Every structure is written in structure tokens, then in C-alpha cells.
Amino acid sequence: MQEPINTQFSIGPRLFTRKDKLQLQELLFHTQLDRGSFTILNNAVAYGLTKTFGLELFIPWFFQNNVDGKKTSGLGDILVEAQWNFYPQLENVGIATLGIRFPTGSTRKEPNLGFGTYGWIFELAGVHSSNNWYASTSFRVRINQRRKTTTPGTRFSYALTGGPKLHLKNGAKIHTICQLDGIYDAKIKKYEKTLFDSGRHVILLGPLISYQKENMIVEGSMQLPIAQKVRGEGAEIRWVSIFTVEVTL
Q1: E strands of the chain, at which residues?
Q2: What's the whole-model pTM score?
Q3: Are 209 and 192 in contact (CB under 8 A)?
């Protein structure tokens, strides 16, 4: 049993909560595979309860095309996260995240729209944002609950971004960022035995352009795999594209 292909990846811009502010984000995420493709429309809402603590809600909708012509679409697994800014400095921020994934995606469709079990997420991230430069790094772990006789492998994700900021005359800022993302999926266990023909390790690299003005952010990114190892029947990535609009109210 492979993981649902629509939950293989978690790459892209992240919300960071602000006190007494409601943030809305629409993220369109497309992945082209060697066998088919899938697109995610991720609807996100974030609210800062205090200066250092906030909540985030992610509601994904999936559109999938298999190489054999089958198409599926529907609600995926909803994710709720609590975010703590444990190092709130002017130019440097440290963030810890704890989340839970709910099994709202259907497992009756093929390919599946969700895991069919709960999952837990832990993440540490650091962000540097000065007047002329931006950089960030993060490490994320996702642990999956057992589903009947099968336990999906734990996922380890890491990211590194950096680049200059350009200041426009109208007060807007453009970030030109190089973004590297890595995903390692541990092997699946079935009947407490490890399936050695499962798991993957993928590293993606590409540019990200971010336009920011007042309370709005528009971002676009495209990444290509620079290294990947896929075991068993898992599909390989050809390219990934992301488009995001975020508004703070």
C-alpha cells in the first residue's frame, strides 16, 4: 500500500499568524508525475490569539488524473495547527508548530483522497527578514496513525530559502528567492513487517517570486527535482508549480 498520492507533498508558502489579525490564503499547487498528475486547492485561515500564539486551519480540495485516464476529486484531510513564536525578534523569528490531521478525505476512491487515519505534525522553523534580505529554514515531522493492518511511514520534510528584497516606488516589495525542499518518507509497515519496496526521498529546487504590498501577498514558484529515489510502485515527480494569494484583514 502506497500513501495517497495527493498527500505525498507539503511544499509551498506557509501562513504565520499575527495578533488580532485574520489571514486568508488560497494556494494552488500542481504536481506533474511520470504517471498522471494532481492539483491541490488549499484554503487556509489563520488567526493570532496573542503576539506569540495563533491557530491555523487548512482545507484542501484535490483534483487527480491517473495515467489510465481515471479522474478523482474531492475533499482531502483537514489540518489544524497551533503555532508558537518562541523567539519574537524584529528581524529574526523562531516558530514551533504542533498540528493534527483529521481523516476527512475519502479512502473509497482510487487513488485515495486521504489517509483514513489521524496524523500528528511537529515543526520547527526560523525566519530572517531584514530590509534587504529574506531567509528561512524549517524541519517538519509527520507521524501517521495505524490504519487497520497498515502504518504509513513517518515523513520528514526540510526546507531552505533565501534571497534579496527589491523595493518599488509604490511601496511594494518583491522577494526573489531560491527555494530548496526535501521530503523523506520512511518505509510502510504492514502486519508489523517493513515493506522494503516502499518509501521515497525527493529534493526539489527552484525560484520563488513574492510580491507584497500592504495587506496582500502574491507568490509564484516552480521547482524541479534535482534528486529523487522512489521505491516500489511510487510515481516520480517531473515538476511542481505553486501560486498563492494571501490577504490579512
Answers
A1: 22-33, 37-48, 53-65, 71-75, 79-88, 92-101, 119-129, 133-144, 150-151, 155-167, 173-185, 189-190, 193-194, 200-213, 216-230, 237-248
A2: 0.88
A3: no
Domain boundary assignment for the chain: 5-248
The owner of cell 522553523 is: 125
pLDDT for the residue 3 = 44
pLDDT in tens, 207-246: 999 999 889 999 999 999 999 998 877 788 999 999 999 9
**Cell numbers for 198:** 516502499
Q: How confident is the model at residue 1 (pLDDT cuts 50, 70, 90)?
A: very low
Which of 2.40.128.130, 2.60.40.10, 3.40.190.10, 1.50.10.20 is the CATH number of 5-248?
A: 2.40.128.130
What is the C-alpha separation between 207 and 180, in angstroms, rounded? Answer: 9
64 C-beta neighbours (distance < 10 Å), count: 24
pLDDT digit string, tens, across residues 59-81: 999 888 876 667 889 999 999 99
Please give the pLDDT value at position 14.
61
Go through 94-113 and write b for each residue having 16 or more CB atoms within 10 A of its CB, e for each that does not. ebebebebebebbeebebbb
Alpha-carbon distance 182 to 203, whole Å?
4
Q: Vertex 74, ends 39 and 119: CA angle to 5°?
A: 85
CB-based contact 86:96 (threshold 8 Å): yes
Q: Looking at 94-108, 132-146, 180-194, which range is the least confident one?
A: 180-194
Alpha-carbon distances of 215 from 24, 116, 167, rounded to whole Å:
11, 37, 16
